[in-house]
């Protein structure tokens, strides 16, 4: 979600393509040579899908991010988040920690992944959604639970 939030801000603020790419790389926090086209692919997939869902834990984690642009632009990040919800009808799906802890498979995920990613996986599995993430452990859990999942580096396969 953090990449989408930053991308949305950059588009709305008419940030140059070069600066937008630098901001996105810094926000992502990885220097693994991901082609910058993947950011555009991620945005295109986000814009084209019928439904977009997020959990309250992912929203909190994103808005509390301490990397790159998000660290220094809290107010703009909040405005961009509201814009995503309004413009793209992003749905916020609840996921109670009690529900995760009561399920043996998800109790282990809760401990290993934390509440944000375990909740995201739980919601995706329960409603048949596809996950897009750069989080290796989350992707592995998704694959083991039969949840369709793509790394950001493979997003062009969906675009």
Can you identify the CATH class?
A: Alpha Beta
Compute the average pLDDT.
88
Strand count, sense and barrel status of the largest sheet are: 2 strands, parallel
Shape: globular
Q: Number of DSSP strands?
A: 4
- At CATH level 2, the architecture is 3-Layer(aba) Sandwich
Under CATH, the topology can be stated as Rossmann fold
Strand order in space, largest sheet: 1-2
Distance between the termini: 17 Å
Q: Spans of 5+ residues with little confidence (pLDDT < 50)?
A: none
- H and E order: HHHEHHHEHHHEHE
Task: Describe the protein in words.
With 159 residues, this protein is mainly alpha-helical. It has a single domain (2-157), classed as Rossmann fold, CATH 3.40.50. 64% of the residues lie in helices and 8% in strands. It has helices at residues 2-12, 17-28, 37-48, 56-63, 68-72, 74-88, 97-102, 104-113, 115-127, 136-144; strands at 53-55, 91-93, 131-133, 149-151. Strands 1-2 form a two-stranded parallel ribbon. Strands 3-4 form a two-stranded parallel sheet. Helix 1 crosses helix 6 (74-88). The radius of gyration is 15 Å and the shape is globular.
Key words describing this protein structure:
64% helix; globular; 8% strand; mainly alpha; 4 strands
What's the layout of helices and strands?
Elements: H1 2-12, H2 17-28, H3 37-48, E1 53-55, H4 56-63, H5 68-72, H6 74-88, E2 91-93, H7 97-102, H8 104-113, H9 115-127, E3 131-133, H10 136-144, E4 149-151
Helix pairs in contact: 1-2, 1-3, 1-6, 4-9, 8-9
In brief:
By secondary structure, the chain is mostly helical.
